[in-house]
TrEMBL record:
Ranges of Low complexity composition bias in the record: 27-37
Ranges annotated as biased composition (Basic and acidic residues): 38-60
Protein name: Mitochondrial integral membrane protein
Region (Disordered) residue spans: 1-68
Ranges annotated as spanning the membrane: 86-108, 120-142, 149-171, 177-195, 224-244
Domain of life assignment: Eukaryota
Statement: the UniProt record of this protein carries the keyword Hydrolase: no
Annotated Pfam families: DUF2417
Keywords: Membrane, Transmembrane, Transmembrane helix
Length: 553
Protein backbone atom coordinates (compact mmCIF):
# COMPACT_ATOMS: atom_id res chain seq x y z
CA UNK A 1 0.00 0.00 0.00
CA UNK A 2 1.06 3.57 -0.58
CA UNK A 3 2.77 4.84 2.55
CA UNK A 4 1.42 7.46 4.89
CA UNK A 5 -2.11 8.08 6.02
CA UNK A 6 -4.80 7.06 3.63
CA UNK A 7 -6.97 9.75 2.13
CA UNK A 8 -10.71 9.70 2.68
CA UNK A 9 -12.52 7.24 0.46
CA UNK A 10 -14.23 8.14 -2.75
CA UNK A 11 -17.46 9.25 -1.12
CA UNK A 12 -15.81 11.25 1.61
CA UNK A 13 -16.60 8.64 4.23
CA UNK A 14 -14.11 7.25 6.70
CA UNK A 15 -14.30 4.98 9.70
CA UNK A 16 -11.65 4.34 12.34
CA UNK A 17 -10.52 0.80 12.94
CA UNK A 18 -12.46 -0.80 15.75
CA UNK A 19 -10.52 -0.96 19.03
CA UNK A 20 -10.14 -4.14 21.04
CA UNK A 21 -13.17 -3.44 23.20
CA UNK A 22 -15.43 -2.88 20.27
CA UNK A 23 -14.08 -6.01 18.62
CA UNK A 24 -14.84 -8.05 21.73
CA UNK A 25 -18.27 -6.53 21.91
CA UNK A 26 -18.81 -7.31 18.29
CA UNK A 27 -17.90 -10.91 18.78
CA UNK A 28 -20.62 -11.29 21.40
CA UNK A 29 -23.29 -10.33 18.88
CA UNK A 30 -24.88 -12.52 16.25
CA UNK A 31 -23.50 -10.55 13.25
CA UNK A 32 -21.95 -12.70 10.55
CA UNK A 33 -18.66 -10.90 10.39
CA UNK A 34 -17.88 -11.32 14.13
CA UNK A 35 -19.00 -14.90 14.62
CA UNK A 36 -16.08 -17.30 15.26
CA UNK A 37 -15.35 -19.76 12.52
CA UNK A 38 -15.97 -22.66 14.91
CA UNK A 39 -19.62 -21.65 15.00
CA UNK A 40 -19.93 -22.81 11.42
CA UNK A 41 -17.65 -25.81 11.49
CA UNK A 42 -19.70 -28.87 10.69
CA UNK A 43 -23.00 -27.13 11.34
CA UNK A 44 -23.61 -24.54 8.58
CA UNK A 45 -22.60 -24.34 4.91
CA UNK A 46 -20.52 -21.19 4.17
CA UNK A 47 -22.23 -18.67 1.91
CA UNK A 48 -20.86 -16.06 -0.47
CA UNK A 49 -20.99 -13.59 2.41
CA UNK A 50 -19.10 -15.79 4.90
CA UNK A 51 -16.80 -18.17 3.09
CA UNK A 52 -13.78 -15.88 2.83
CA UNK A 53 -13.75 -15.50 6.61
CA UNK A 54 -14.81 -18.99 7.52
CA UNK A 55 -13.08 -21.39 5.16
CA UNK A 56 -9.70 -20.65 6.68
CA UNK A 57 -7.87 -20.35 3.36
CA UNK A 58 -6.54 -16.95 4.40
CA UNK A 59 -5.85 -16.58 8.12
CA UNK A 60 -7.57 -13.52 9.62
CA UNK A 61 -5.83 -11.02 11.82
CA UNK A 62 -5.99 -11.28 15.55
CA UNK A 63 -9.22 -9.30 15.54
CA UNK A 64 -10.88 -11.84 13.25
CA UNK A 65 -10.72 -9.78 9.97
CA UNK A 66 -8.69 -10.03 6.80
CA UNK A 67 -5.84 -7.66 6.06
CA UNK A 68 -6.88 -4.71 3.85
CA UNK A 69 -4.18 -5.71 1.35
CA UNK A 70 -5.57 -9.20 0.99
CA UNK A 71 -6.65 -9.83 -2.65
CA UNK A 72 -9.80 -11.47 -1.34
CA UNK A 73 -11.05 -8.03 -0.30
CA UNK A 74 -12.75 -7.18 -3.59
CA UNK A 75 -16.14 -5.94 -4.77
CA UNK A 76 -16.11 -8.86 -7.22
CA UNK A 77 -17.27 -10.99 -4.28
CA UNK A 78 -20.73 -9.54 -4.83
CA UNK A 79 -22.88 -11.01 -7.57
CA UNK A 80 -24.36 -7.57 -8.34
CA UNK A 81 -20.91 -6.19 -9.18
CA UNK A 82 -20.05 -9.18 -11.32
CA UNK A 83 -23.42 -8.85 -13.04
CA UNK A 84 -22.70 -5.21 -13.94
CA UNK A 85 -19.26 -6.08 -15.31
CA UNK A 86 -20.62 -8.87 -17.50
CA UNK A 87 -23.27 -6.57 -18.95
CA UNK A 88 -20.76 -3.75 -19.44
CA UNK A 89 -18.62 -6.09 -21.52
CA UNK A 90 -21.71 -7.21 -23.44
CA UNK A 91 -22.66 -3.59 -24.17
CA UNK A 92 -19.09 -2.95 -25.30
CA UNK A 93 -19.29 -5.82 -27.79
CA UNK A 94 -22.66 -4.61 -29.09
CA UNK A 95 -21.29 -1.09 -29.50
CA UNK A 96 -18.25 -2.38 -31.40
CA UNK A 97 -20.53 -4.30 -33.75
CA UNK A 98 -22.65 -1.18 -34.32
CA UNK A 99 -19.48 0.88 -34.83
CA UNK A 100 -18.34 -1.58 -37.51
CA UNK A 101 -21.66 -1.33 -39.34
CA UNK A 102 -21.53 2.46 -39.26
CA UNK A 103 -17.96 2.45 -40.55
CA UNK A 104 -18.97 0.21 -43.45
CA UNK A 105 -22.04 2.34 -44.21
CA UNK A 106 -19.81 5.36 -44.90
CA UNK A 107 -18.39 3.50 -47.91
CA UNK A 108 -21.18 1.04 -48.77
CA UNK A 109 -24.68 1.63 -47.40
CA UNK A 110 -26.16 -1.62 -45.98
CA UNK A 111 -29.84 -2.16 -46.83
CA UNK A 112 -32.04 0.01 -44.64
CA UNK A 113 -29.13 1.82 -42.97
CA UNK A 114 -28.82 4.82 -45.27
CA UNK A 115 -29.44 8.18 -43.62
CA UNK A 116 -29.83 11.40 -45.57
CA UNK A 117 -27.10 13.05 -43.54
CA UNK A 118 -23.40 12.32 -43.71
CA UNK A 119 -23.42 9.49 -41.17
CA UNK A 120 -20.41 10.98 -39.40
CA UNK A 121 -22.46 12.05 -36.38
CA UNK A 122 -23.76 8.50 -35.90
CA UNK A 123 -20.19 7.28 -36.04
CA UNK A 124 -19.02 9.97 -33.57
CA UNK A 125 -21.74 9.13 -31.04
CA UNK A 126 -20.77 5.46 -31.21
CA UNK A 127 -17.08 6.29 -30.80
CA UNK A 128 -17.97 8.25 -27.67
CA UNK A 129 -20.03 5.32 -26.42
CA UNK A 130 -17.14 2.91 -26.93
CA UNK A 131 -14.81 5.36 -25.18
CA UNK A 132 -17.07 5.52 -22.12
CA UNK A 133 -17.37 1.75 -21.96
CA UNK A 134 -13.63 1.24 -22.42
CA UNK A 135 -12.84 3.51 -19.48
CA UNK A 136 -15.47 1.75 -17.39
CA UNK A 137 -14.08 -1.71 -18.17
CA UNK A 138 -10.38 -0.85 -17.76
CA UNK A 139 -10.90 1.05 -14.52
CA UNK A 140 -13.84 -0.97 -13.29
CA UNK A 141 -12.30 -1.91 -9.95
CA UNK A 142 -11.21 1.68 -9.19
CA UNK A 143 -14.38 3.72 -8.76
CA UNK A 144 -13.98 7.46 -8.32
CA UNK A 145 -16.30 10.37 -7.77
CA UNK A 146 -14.42 12.42 -10.36
CA UNK A 147 -15.17 9.73 -12.94
CA UNK A 148 -18.86 9.81 -12.11
CA UNK A 149 -19.00 13.60 -12.29
CA UNK A 150 -17.34 13.83 -15.70
CA UNK A 151 -19.50 11.00 -17.06
CA UNK A 152 -22.58 12.79 -15.75
CA UNK A 153 -21.53 15.92 -17.64
CA UNK A 154 -21.17 13.84 -20.81
CA UNK A 155 -24.64 12.40 -20.22
CA UNK A 156 -26.14 15.89 -19.89
CA UNK A 157 -24.70 17.06 -23.21
CA UNK A 158 -25.73 13.84 -24.93
CA UNK A 159 -29.28 14.35 -23.68
CA UNK A 160 -29.19 17.87 -25.15
CA UNK A 161 -27.99 16.36 -28.46
CA UNK A 162 -30.83 13.85 -28.38
CA UNK A 163 -33.38 16.60 -27.79
CA UNK A 164 -31.96 18.67 -30.66
CA UNK A 165 -32.07 15.75 -33.09
CA UNK A 166 -35.61 14.80 -32.13
CA UNK A 167 -36.95 18.36 -31.95
CA UNK A 168 -35.47 19.87 -35.15
CA UNK A 169 -37.22 18.36 -38.20
CA UNK A 170 -34.29 18.74 -40.58
CA UNK A 171 -31.83 17.14 -38.14
CA UNK A 172 -34.27 14.32 -37.46
CA UNK A 173 -34.68 13.77 -41.20
CA UNK A 174 -30.94 13.80 -41.91
CA UNK A 175 -29.92 11.57 -39.01
CA UNK A 176 -32.77 9.09 -39.57
CA UNK A 177 -33.37 6.08 -37.40
CA UNK A 178 -29.67 5.22 -37.43
CA UNK A 179 -28.69 8.55 -35.89
CA UNK A 180 -31.54 8.47 -33.39
CA UNK A 181 -30.62 4.95 -32.31
CA UNK A 182 -26.96 5.97 -31.95
CA UNK A 183 -27.66 8.97 -29.72
CA UNK A 184 -30.21 7.10 -27.58
CA UNK A 185 -27.70 4.29 -27.08
CA UNK A 186 -24.99 6.81 -26.19
CA UNK A 187 -27.24 8.40 -23.56
CA UNK A 188 -28.16 5.02 -22.10
CA UNK A 189 -24.52 3.91 -21.88
CA UNK A 190 -23.40 7.12 -20.20
CA UNK A 191 -26.08 6.68 -17.53
CA UNK A 192 -25.17 2.99 -17.23
CA UNK A 193 -21.52 3.91 -16.59
CA UNK A 194 -22.52 6.30 -13.81
CA UNK A 195 -24.71 3.70 -12.12
CA UNK A 196 -22.07 0.99 -12.53
CA UNK A 197 -19.31 3.08 -11.00
CA UNK A 198 -21.57 4.00 -8.09
CA UNK A 199 -22.51 0.37 -7.46
CA UNK A 200 -18.86 -0.72 -7.60
CA UNK A 201 -17.99 1.99 -5.07
CA UNK A 202 -20.76 0.70 -2.81
CA UNK A 203 -19.65 -2.90 -3.27
CA UNK A 204 -16.05 -2.01 -2.50
CA UNK A 205 -17.05 -0.31 0.74
CA UNK A 206 -19.42 -3.13 1.63
CA UNK A 207 -16.77 -5.82 1.25
CA UNK A 208 -14.17 -3.80 3.10
CA UNK A 209 -16.53 -3.38 6.04
CA UNK A 210 -17.38 -7.07 6.04
CA UNK A 211 -13.88 -8.48 5.58
CA UNK A 212 -11.62 -5.88 7.23
CA UNK A 213 -13.94 -4.26 9.74
CA UNK A 214 -14.00 -0.81 8.16
CA UNK A 215 -14.17 0.87 4.72
CA UNK A 216 -10.74 1.51 3.26
CA UNK A 217 -9.57 5.14 3.38
CA UNK A 218 -6.33 4.77 1.47
CA UNK A 219 -5.38 4.39 -2.20
CA UNK A 220 -2.26 2.82 -3.59
CA UNK A 221 -0.12 4.68 -6.09
CA UNK A 222 -1.49 2.38 -8.77
CA UNK A 223 -5.05 3.32 -7.83
CA UNK A 224 -4.29 7.03 -7.86
CA UNK A 225 -2.73 6.73 -11.31
CA UNK A 226 -5.80 4.80 -12.52
CA UNK A 227 -8.14 7.49 -11.17
CA UNK A 228 -6.04 10.21 -12.79
CA UNK A 229 -5.93 8.52 -16.19
CA UNK A 230 -9.66 7.74 -16.12
CA UNK A 231 -10.50 11.32 -15.19
CA UNK A 232 -8.28 12.74 -17.94
CA UNK A 233 -9.93 10.49 -20.53
CA UNK A 234 -13.47 11.33 -19.46
CA UNK A 235 -12.59 15.02 -19.35
CA UNK A 236 -11.48 14.73 -22.98
CA UNK A 237 -14.83 13.06 -23.70
CA UNK A 238 -16.55 16.02 -22.05
CA UNK A 239 -14.79 18.39 -24.47
CA UNK A 240 -15.85 16.19 -27.39
CA UNK A 241 -19.47 16.16 -26.17
CA UNK A 242 -19.49 19.95 -25.81
CA UNK A 243 -18.12 20.47 -29.33
CA UNK A 244 -20.64 18.03 -30.81
CA UNK A 245 -23.48 19.84 -29.06
CA UNK A 246 -22.20 23.14 -30.43
CA UNK A 247 -22.01 21.72 -33.96
CA UNK A 248 -25.53 20.31 -33.70
CA UNK A 249 -26.75 23.70 -32.52
CA UNK A 250 -25.15 25.34 -35.55
CA UNK A 251 -26.76 22.75 -37.81
CA UNK A 252 -30.12 23.44 -36.20
CA UNK A 253 -29.61 27.14 -36.86
CA UNK A 254 -28.56 26.53 -40.47
CA UNK A 255 -31.66 24.40 -41.09
CA UNK A 256 -33.79 27.55 -40.80
CA UNK A 257 -32.18 29.09 -43.90
CA UNK A 258 -34.77 29.37 -46.66
CA UNK A 259 -34.07 28.27 -50.22
CA UNK A 260 -35.53 28.91 -53.65
CA UNK A 261 -37.14 26.06 -55.54
CA UNK A 262 -37.97 22.72 -53.94
CA UNK A 263 -36.49 19.54 -52.54
CA UNK A 264 -37.52 16.51 -54.60
CA UNK A 265 -37.31 12.88 -53.50
CA UNK A 266 -35.43 10.64 -55.93
CA UNK A 267 -34.06 7.10 -56.18
CA UNK A 268 -37.08 5.43 -54.68
CA UNK A 269 -37.53 8.26 -52.15
CA UNK A 270 -34.21 7.41 -50.50
CA UNK A 271 -33.05 11.02 -50.53
CA UNK A 272 -34.04 14.48 -51.76
CA UNK A 273 -32.21 16.90 -54.05
CA UNK A 274 -32.68 20.64 -54.34
CA UNK A 275 -33.82 22.01 -57.71
CA UNK A 276 -34.68 25.58 -58.64
CA UNK A 277 -35.58 27.33 -61.90
CA UNK A 278 -35.41 31.07 -62.61
CA UNK A 279 -36.94 33.05 -65.47
CA UNK A 280 -39.77 32.48 -67.91
CA UNK A 281 -40.29 30.03 -70.73
CA UNK A 282 -39.85 31.82 -74.05
CA UNK A 283 -40.67 30.90 -77.63
CA UNK A 284 -39.10 31.81 -80.96
CA UNK A 285 -41.14 31.27 -84.12
CA UNK A 286 -43.56 29.21 -82.07
CA UNK A 287 -40.87 26.92 -80.75
CA UNK A 288 -39.74 26.69 -77.16
CA UNK A 289 -36.34 28.21 -76.54
CA UNK A 290 -33.78 26.04 -74.79
CA UNK A 291 -33.37 26.58 -71.06
CA UNK A 292 -29.96 26.58 -69.40
CA UNK A 293 -29.24 23.71 -67.01
CA UNK A 294 -26.39 24.58 -64.65
CA UNK A 295 -24.07 21.97 -63.16
CA UNK A 296 -21.66 23.43 -60.61
CA UNK A 297 -18.11 22.23 -60.14
CA UNK A 298 -16.41 21.66 -56.82
CA UNK A 299 -18.72 24.06 -54.95
CA UNK A 300 -22.51 24.46 -54.69
CA UNK A 301 -24.05 26.29 -57.63
CA UNK A 302 -25.43 29.02 -55.33
CA UNK A 303 -21.94 30.14 -54.36
CA UNK A 304 -21.59 32.57 -57.33
CA UNK A 305 -21.86 30.30 -60.37
CA UNK A 306 -25.63 30.74 -60.31
CA UNK A 307 -25.22 34.52 -59.87
CA UNK A 308 -23.58 34.68 -63.28
CA UNK A 309 -26.58 32.91 -64.84
CA UNK A 310 -28.96 35.28 -63.05
CA UNK A 311 -27.14 38.26 -64.52
CA UNK A 312 -27.40 36.64 -67.96
CA UNK A 313 -31.19 36.53 -67.52
CA UNK A 314 -31.21 40.18 -66.43
CA UNK A 315 -29.14 41.11 -69.48
CA UNK A 316 -31.49 39.26 -71.82
CA UNK A 317 -28.86 36.76 -72.94
CA UNK A 318 -31.05 33.88 -71.79
CA UNK A 319 -34.65 33.69 -70.67
CA UNK A 320 -34.62 30.81 -68.20
CA UNK A 321 -32.20 28.58 -66.31
CA UNK A 322 -32.40 25.77 -63.78
CA UNK A 323 -29.80 24.68 -61.26
CA UNK A 324 -29.58 21.93 -58.71
CA UNK A 325 -27.37 20.73 -55.88
CA UNK A 326 -25.72 17.37 -56.34
CA UNK A 327 -26.28 14.94 -53.44
CA UNK A 328 -24.53 16.23 -50.32
CA UNK A 329 -24.20 19.81 -51.60
CA UNK A 330 -26.09 22.74 -50.03
CA UNK A 331 -29.73 21.74 -49.48
CA UNK A 332 -29.54 18.27 -51.06
CA UNK A 333 -29.33 15.12 -48.94
CA UNK A 334 -26.47 12.68 -49.15
CA UNK A 335 -27.08 9.70 -51.43
CA UNK A 336 -26.44 6.07 -50.45
CA UNK A 337 -22.89 4.85 -51.02
CA UNK A 338 -21.42 4.17 -53.48
CA UNK A 339 -22.57 7.06 -55.63
CA UNK A 340 -21.16 7.78 -59.08
CA UNK A 341 -21.45 10.66 -61.55
CA UNK A 342 -23.91 8.61 -63.59
CA UNK A 343 -26.11 8.17 -60.53
CA UNK A 344 -26.08 11.94 -60.06
CA UNK A 345 -27.13 12.37 -63.70
CA UNK A 346 -30.02 9.96 -63.16
CA UNK A 347 -31.06 11.79 -59.97
CA UNK A 348 -31.10 15.07 -61.89
CA UNK A 349 -33.16 13.54 -64.66
CA UNK A 350 -35.69 12.20 -62.15
CA UNK A 351 -35.88 15.52 -60.29
CA UNK A 352 -36.54 17.44 -63.52
CA UNK A 353 -39.26 15.00 -64.51
CA UNK A 354 -41.00 15.20 -61.12
CA UNK A 355 -40.79 19.01 -61.17
CA UNK A 356 -42.39 19.09 -64.64
CA UNK A 357 -39.39 20.80 -66.23
CA UNK A 358 -38.97 20.08 -69.92
CA UNK A 359 -36.22 20.67 -72.43
CA UNK A 360 -34.67 21.44 -74.72
CA UNK A 361 -31.61 22.04 -72.54
CA UNK A 362 -28.29 23.73 -72.98
CA UNK A 363 -25.96 22.27 -70.37
CA UNK A 364 -23.54 24.68 -68.73
CA UNK A 365 -21.13 22.95 -66.38
CA UNK A 366 -17.86 23.63 -64.62
CA UNK A 367 -15.00 21.52 -63.23
CA UNK A 368 -16.06 18.11 -61.99
CA UNK A 369 -19.68 18.96 -62.76
CA UNK A 370 -18.84 18.62 -66.45
CA UNK A 371 -18.55 14.86 -65.93
CA UNK A 372 -22.18 14.73 -64.75
CA UNK A 373 -23.34 16.99 -67.61
CA UNK A 374 -21.65 14.87 -70.25
CA UNK A 375 -23.27 11.72 -68.92
CA UNK A 376 -26.64 13.48 -68.71
CA UNK A 377 -26.23 14.67 -72.30
CA UNK A 378 -25.49 11.19 -73.61
CA UNK A 379 -28.63 9.87 -71.92
CA UNK A 380 -30.87 12.68 -73.24
CA UNK A 381 -29.60 13.22 -76.79
CA UNK A 382 -32.87 14.61 -78.11
CA UNK A 383 -33.34 17.05 -75.24
CA UNK A 384 -29.80 18.44 -75.05
CA UNK A 385 -29.13 20.98 -77.78
CA UNK A 386 -25.86 22.48 -76.60
CA UNK A 387 -22.88 21.99 -74.27
CA UNK A 388 -20.85 24.66 -72.54
CA UNK A 389 -17.91 23.37 -70.49
CA UNK A 390 -16.12 25.82 -68.19
CA UNK A 391 -12.60 24.60 -67.38
CA UNK A 392 -13.95 21.04 -67.38
CA UNK A 393 -12.51 17.98 -65.69
CA UNK A 394 -11.34 15.43 -68.25
CA UNK A 395 -12.00 11.73 -67.77
CA UNK A 396 -8.28 10.96 -67.99
CA UNK A 397 -7.66 13.19 -64.96
CA UNK A 398 -10.22 11.57 -62.71
CA UNK A 399 -7.41 9.70 -60.99
CA UNK A 400 -6.61 13.00 -59.27
CA UNK A 401 -10.01 12.99 -57.61
CA UNK A 402 -9.85 9.25 -56.96
CA UNK A 403 -6.42 9.37 -55.31
CA UNK A 404 -6.42 6.98 -52.26
CA UNK A 405 -4.45 9.46 -50.17
CA UNK A 406 -7.06 12.14 -50.81
CA UNK A 407 -9.78 9.67 -49.88
CA UNK A 408 -8.12 8.87 -46.56
CA UNK A 409 -7.78 12.59 -45.76
CA UNK A 410 -11.44 13.18 -46.61
CA UNK A 411 -12.46 10.29 -44.37
CA UNK A 412 -10.36 11.72 -41.54
CA UNK A 413 -11.91 15.16 -41.91
CA UNK A 414 -15.33 13.54 -42.03
CA UNK A 415 -14.75 11.70 -38.76
CA UNK A 416 -13.65 14.99 -37.15
CA UNK A 417 -16.46 17.06 -38.71
CA UNK A 418 -18.94 16.49 -35.82
CA UNK A 419 -16.54 18.42 -33.59
CA UNK A 420 -17.02 21.41 -35.90
CA UNK A 421 -14.03 23.29 -34.52
CA UNK A 422 -13.57 25.39 -37.67
CA UNK A 423 -17.28 26.01 -38.10
CA UNK A 424 -17.77 26.96 -34.45
CA UNK A 425 -14.73 29.23 -34.47
CA UNK A 426 -15.97 30.87 -37.67
CA UNK A 427 -19.47 31.39 -36.27
CA UNK A 428 -18.26 32.75 -32.91
CA UNK A 429 -15.17 34.75 -33.78
CA UNK A 430 -15.37 35.52 -37.51
CA UNK A 431 -19.06 36.20 -37.99
CA UNK A 432 -19.64 33.49 -40.58
CA UNK A 433 -23.30 33.33 -41.55
CA UNK A 434 -25.71 30.52 -42.35
CA UNK A 435 -25.19 31.25 -46.03
CA UNK A 436 -21.44 30.78 -45.62
CA UNK A 437 -21.91 27.38 -44.01
CA UNK A 438 -24.73 25.99 -46.16
CA UNK A 439 -23.56 26.93 -49.68
CA UNK A 440 -20.87 29.58 -49.33
CA UNK A 441 -17.17 29.78 -48.63
CA UNK A 442 -17.33 27.48 -45.58
CA UNK A 443 -19.61 24.81 -47.03
CA UNK A 444 -16.60 22.51 -47.46
CA UNK A 445 -16.38 22.17 -43.66
CA UNK A 446 -19.75 20.43 -43.34
CA UNK A 447 -20.09 16.69 -42.92
CA UNK A 448 -22.51 16.34 -45.85
CA UNK A 449 -20.14 18.09 -48.23
CA UNK A 450 -17.18 16.00 -47.07
CA UNK A 451 -19.23 12.82 -47.47
CA UNK A 452 -20.18 13.86 -51.03
CA UNK A 453 -16.53 14.45 -51.94
CA UNK A 454 -15.56 11.13 -50.37
CA UNK A 455 -18.20 9.38 -52.47
CA UNK A 456 -16.84 11.04 -55.61
CA UNK A 457 -13.32 9.97 -54.60
CA UNK A 458 -14.24 6.32 -54.07
CA UNK A 459 -15.58 5.73 -57.60
CA UNK A 460 -13.99 8.56 -59.64
CA UNK A 461 -11.34 6.45 -61.33
CA UNK A 462 -13.53 3.38 -61.73
CA UNK A 463 -17.31 3.61 -62.05
CA UNK A 464 -17.55 7.32 -62.90
CA UNK A 465 -14.73 7.07 -65.43
CA UNK A 466 -16.40 4.12 -67.12
CA UNK A 467 -19.68 6.03 -67.33
CA UNK A 468 -18.15 9.16 -68.86
CA UNK A 469 -16.06 7.17 -71.35
CA UNK A 470 -19.26 5.46 -72.51
CA UNK A 471 -20.95 8.87 -72.66
CA UNK A 472 -18.24 10.15 -75.00
CA UNK A 473 -18.90 7.30 -77.41
CA UNK A 474 -22.64 7.95 -77.34
CA UNK A 475 -22.56 11.76 -77.52
CA UNK A 476 -24.08 13.20 -80.70
CA UNK A 477 -21.43 14.69 -82.97
CA UNK A 478 -23.83 17.47 -84.06
CA UNK A 479 -24.29 18.98 -80.60
CA UNK A 480 -22.90 22.56 -80.49
CA UNK A 481 -19.97 22.80 -78.07
CA UNK A 482 -18.30 25.71 -76.27
CA UNK A 483 -15.21 25.29 -74.08
CA UNK A 484 -13.98 28.11 -71.83
CA UNK A 485 -10.68 27.40 -70.05
CA UNK A 486 -8.63 29.03 -67.34
CA UNK A 487 -5.33 30.48 -68.56
CA UNK A 488 -3.91 30.32 -65.04
CA UNK A 489 -4.72 26.61 -64.77
CA UNK A 490 -3.40 25.84 -68.23
CA UNK A 491 -0.11 27.69 -67.66
CA UNK A 492 0.58 25.94 -64.36
CA UNK A 493 -0.54 22.47 -65.43
CA UNK A 494 0.57 21.22 -68.85
CA UNK A 495 -1.49 18.05 -68.65
CA UNK A 496 -4.60 20.07 -67.82
CA UNK A 497 -4.01 22.24 -70.89
CA UNK A 498 -3.68 19.18 -73.15
CA UNK A 499 -6.89 17.70 -71.80
CA UNK A 500 -8.71 21.01 -72.29
CA UNK A 501 -7.73 20.85 -75.93
CA UNK A 502 -8.99 17.27 -76.12
CA UNK A 503 -12.31 18.36 -74.59
CA UNK A 504 -12.92 20.54 -77.65
CA UNK A 505 -13.19 17.32 -79.68
CA UNK A 506 -16.17 15.89 -77.79
CA UNK A 507 -18.36 16.81 -80.75
CA UNK A 508 -17.68 17.88 -84.32
CA UNK A 509 -19.60 21.12 -83.87
CA UNK A 510 -17.18 23.31 -81.86
CA UNK A 511 -18.54 26.85 -81.61
CA UNK A 512 -15.50 28.26 -79.79
CA UNK A 513 -12.67 27.55 -77.39
CA UNK A 514 -11.52 30.43 -75.21
CA UNK A 515 -8.61 30.47 -72.78
CA UNK A 516 -9.41 33.43 -70.54
CA UNK A 517 -6.36 35.39 -69.47
CA UNK A 518 -5.79 35.78 -65.70
CA UNK A 519 -8.89 33.72 -64.95
CA UNK A 520 -8.67 31.07 -62.20
CA UNK A 521 -10.29 27.65 -62.33
CA UNK A 522 -13.58 29.37 -61.41
CA UNK A 523 -13.50 31.44 -64.60
CA UNK A 524 -16.65 33.40 -63.75
CA UNK A 525 -14.92 35.09 -60.79
CA UNK A 526 -13.20 37.57 -63.09
CA UNK A 527 -14.98 40.22 -65.11
CA UNK A 528 -13.35 39.06 -68.34
CA UNK A 529 -14.35 35.49 -67.57
CA UNK A 530 -18.01 36.43 -67.04
CA UNK A 531 -18.07 38.50 -70.21
CA UNK A 532 -16.57 35.71 -72.31
CA UNK A 533 -18.94 33.13 -70.84
CA UNK A 534 -22.02 35.25 -71.49
CA UNK A 535 -20.90 36.08 -75.02
CA UNK A 536 -20.28 32.44 -75.89
CA UNK A 537 -23.55 31.41 -74.29
CA UNK A 538 -25.45 33.73 -76.65
CA UNK A 539 -23.67 32.13 -79.60
CA UNK A 540 -24.44 28.67 -78.25
CA UNK A 541 -28.15 29.48 -77.95
CA UNK A 542 -28.22 30.62 -81.61
CA UNK A 543 -26.29 27.53 -82.73
CA UNK A 544 -28.65 25.28 -80.78
CA UNK A 545 -31.68 26.86 -82.43
CA UNK A 546 -30.09 26.39 -85.83
CA UNK A 547 -29.32 22.72 -85.20
CA UNK A 548 -32.84 22.16 -83.89
CA UNK A 549 -34.37 23.76 -86.98
CA UNK A 550 -32.15 21.66 -89.25
CA UNK A 551 -33.18 18.46 -87.49
CA UNK A 552 -36.88 19.30 -87.83
CA UNK A 553 -36.48 19.97 -91.55
Amino acid sequence: MWGGKKAPDDDGESAPRADAASVDAGRSTTSVRSTPRSHYDGRQEPTERTRLLDEGRRPPNSDGYLDPDDPAVSPYNLWSVRFLRYFTILFFMVSCLWWTLLLISIFISPPGMHSRGSGFFDFAFTCLTIGNLSVQIVFFITPAKALRVTTAIIAVFLIIDMILILAVPRLRLEEGWVGIASIVWAVFISIWCIITDRVVAWGKREEEERLTGRPETRRTLKEWVAVLVATILTTAFVVVAILMTGTLSVRARDSTLQFAGERILVDGDKYAVHLSCVGNVSYTHGKRDPAILLEAGEEPAEYDFEHWAYNAVQNGSISRYCYWDRPGYAWSDNAPSPHSAGMSADALSEALAKAGEEGPWILVSAGTGSIVSRIFSSRHLKQVTGLMLVDPMHEDLLHRIGNPGRGFVLWGWGVLSPLGMSRLAGAIFKGHTRQDRVYGRNAYQGGKFIKAELQENLVADSLSKSEVVSARNIQSSETPLVVVSSAVKCRTDGEWERKQRDSTKLTENLVSWDVVNKAPHQVWRTLEGREVMEKRLKQLVKAARKVKATEEE
